[in-house]
UniProtKB/TrEMBL annotation:
<keyword id="KW-0808">Transferase</keyword>
<keyword id="KW-0489">Methyltransferase</keyword>
<dbReference type="InterPro" id="IPR003788">
    <property type="entry name" value="NDUFAF7"/>
</dbReference>
<dbReference type="Pfam" id="PF02636">
    <property type="entry name" value="Methyltransf_28"/>
</dbReference>
<dbReference type="GO" id="GO:0005739">
    <property type="term" value="C:mitochondrion"/>
</dbReference>
<keyword id="KW-0496">Mitochondrion</keyword>
<keyword id="KW-0809">Transit peptide</keyword>
<dbReference type="InterPro" id="IPR029063">
    <property type="entry name" value="SAM-dependent_MTases_sf"/>
</dbReference>
<dbReference type="GO" id="GO:0035243">
    <property type="term" value="F:protein-arginine omega-N symmetric methyltransferase activity"/>
</dbReference>
<dbReference type="GO" id="GO:0032259">
    <property type="term" value="P:methylation"/>
</dbReference>
<comment type="function">
    <text>Arginine methyltransferase involved in the assembly or stability of mitochondrial NADH:ubiquinone oxidoreductase complex (complex I). Acts by mediating symmetric dimethylation of 'Arg-118' of NDUFS2 after it assembles into the complex I, stabilizing the early intermediate complex.</text>
</comment>
<comment type="subunit">
    <text>Interacts with NDUFS2.</text>
</comment>
<dbReference type="GO" id="GO:0032981">
    <property type="term" value="P:mitochondrial respiratory chain complex I assembly"/>
</dbReference>
<protein>
    <recommendedName>
        <fullName>Protein arginine methyltransferase NDUFAF7</fullName>
        <ecNumber>2.1.1.320</ecNumber>
    </recommendedName>
</protein>
<comment type="similarity">
    <text>Belongs to the NDUFAF7 family.</text>
</comment>
<dbReference type="InterPro" id="IPR038375">
    <property type="entry name" value="NDUFAF7_sf"/>
</dbReference>
Length: 437
């Protein structure tokens, strides 16, 4: 923990932009389309097998094991391409830590649980959550906790290890194994790294995904007079080394993902990988308990064309210099809800400012302001708060969504002891106002 943190001060200077915001695009036509290794790889692929889906394009650009943007970049923070809430203010992770403890208590204080983060970035969020777990050690003392990180990026997994683990204890590495790295956190908990959720052991778990689902590949479709047609990526015949969007001449298999009967929009994006992950999470939670907290920018099945790129905190043309910019699409929470298939209950989406307010962000801010000695530290805390909460900034565009076992929302006591009188389930923090007792 660095000195700034110990004094309860926000960790980084507040940057001017974040990824969920749309900016007026620079004139990128004027920007030369640098022949990146990724562009060469994609043009070769398209020349050999024909135009590719946007989902395949996104997957190659972001997570191709040799050249993918996520695999070898540290894209987060002021010097990177975008900034995320945990990097803006420690309060964000602290309140999420309280959410997990609150859910662990409300669901019957299981003797052990796994904290599983999907796409942990620089490890900052898990670090802040673990600090809260340590501070509330008296509550969690009898509980056996382990940390499980699902991360495709070699570069970021190294940064996560630096953030979270004790330098003196060497990490175990095995690139060939499903668990490619293992270590011990600064607070003494076992931590393991995986490339895929399916490799994380099953067992009572609390899952966290912050700005993870928006990085998963989407298929894009356009309504035409002949019906839905998938948007593909092709090489521009007029300009060498330039990519362009085209429409598939006939129906493609991915069209099955569109809900034909009630789709009023004329452009839709569908993310089958998100559906698979939600199904897996739902089955796990229904089977072994726990919960999933998903936070991202997104919509409830209302938005159309949200696919965009970010480089250096600016909007970036998604087809220019692939591999040098982040690609992202808004999360469709209505699709996530459908993919849970009723196996678990879902809550939300609720706006970030509502969730954090319900979690007690104002109380926590005041405590940190009282502790901060320097005016500049107070200023940073207030700026961080404004960034997270202001409806014009991250307050409304970012949303929280949760998956919980059905019995959590109905009658917690019923499951444990049918003879006891029924007590109503306690409210879910963040989605209801948290009562401080
Ligand atoms: N949660 C972090 C980082 C968000 S960026 C934060 O809020 O600061 C997205 C993260 O997801 C990165 O860590 C990236 O490497 C990871 N990621 C992207 N696609 C992934 C995939 N298919 N599987 C696992 N991790 C992925």
């Amino acid at each position: 923990m660095n000195a700034l943190l110990r004094r309860g001060v926000a960790r980084v200077g507040i940057p001017c932009v974040w990824r969920g915001k749309r900016f007026s695009s620079r004139d990128e036509a004027a920007e030369s389309n640098r022949g990146t290794p990724m562009l060469r790889h994609l043009t070769y692929k398209i020349k050999s097998t024909g135009p590719i889906t946007v989902a395949e394009y996104m997957k190659e650009v972001l997570t191709n094991p040799a050249k993918g943007y996520y695999v070898h970049h540290d894209m987060l923070g002021e010097k990177g391409d975008f900034i995320t809430s945990p990097e803006i203010s420690q309060i964000f992770g602290e309140l999420l830590g309280i959410w997990f403890i609150s859910e662990w208590m409300a669901s019957g204080k299981s003797p052990a649980f796994q904290l599983v983060e999907l796409g942990p970035g620089r490890g900052t969020l898990t670090g802040d959550i673990l600090r809260v777990f340590s501070q509330l050690g008296s509550v969690l003392k009898a509980c056996d906790i382990s940390i499980h990180l699902v991360e495709v990026s070699q570069k970021l997994s190294e940064i996560q290890a630096l953030t979270l683990t004790e330098e003196k204890l060497p990490l175990e590495r095995d690139a060939e194994s499903l668990v490619y790295m293992k270590g011990v956190t600064k607070s003494g908990l076992p931590v393991s790294w995986y490339r895929d959720l399916k490799d994380v052991p099953k067992g009572c778990s609390f899952y966290l995904a912050h700005e993870f689902f928006d990085a998963l590949p989407v298929h894009k479709f356009q309504k035409t007079s002949q019906g839905w047609r998938e948007v593909l990526v092709d090489i521009d015949p007029q300009v060498p080394d330039k990519l362009r969007f085209v429409l598939a001449p006939c129906a493609t298999p991915a069209e099955a993902f569109i809900r034909q009967h009630d789709e009023g929009r004329d452009h839709v994006e569908v993310c089958p990988d998100a559906g698979i992950i939600i199904q897996d999470l739902s089955e796990r939670i229904a089977l072994t308990g726990g919960a999933a907290l998903i936070a991202d920018y997104g919509h409830d099945g209302t938005k159309a064309d949200t696919f965009r790129g970010f480089r250096g905190h600016q909007l970036h043309d998604v087809l220019i210099a692939p591999g040098t910019a982040d690609l992202t699409a808004d999360v469709d929470f209505s699709y996530l809800r459908r993919m849970a298939q009723g196996k678990v209950a879902s809550l939300g989406p609720v706006e970030q400012r509502t969730f954090l307010k319900n979690m007690g962000i104002d109380v926590r801010l005041q405590v940190l302001l009282d502790k901060a000695d320097e005016p500049s530290a107070k200023q940073q805390l207030l700026q961080g708060y404004d960034m997270l909460m202001n409806p014009q900034k991250m307050g409304e565009r970012f949303n929280f969504f949760a998956l919980l076992p059905h019995q959590r929302l109905h009658d917690a006591s019923q499951e444990r002891n049918a003879c006891q009188s029924k007590t109503p389930a306690s409210p879910v923090a963040g989605f209801d106002e948290l009562v401080w007792q």
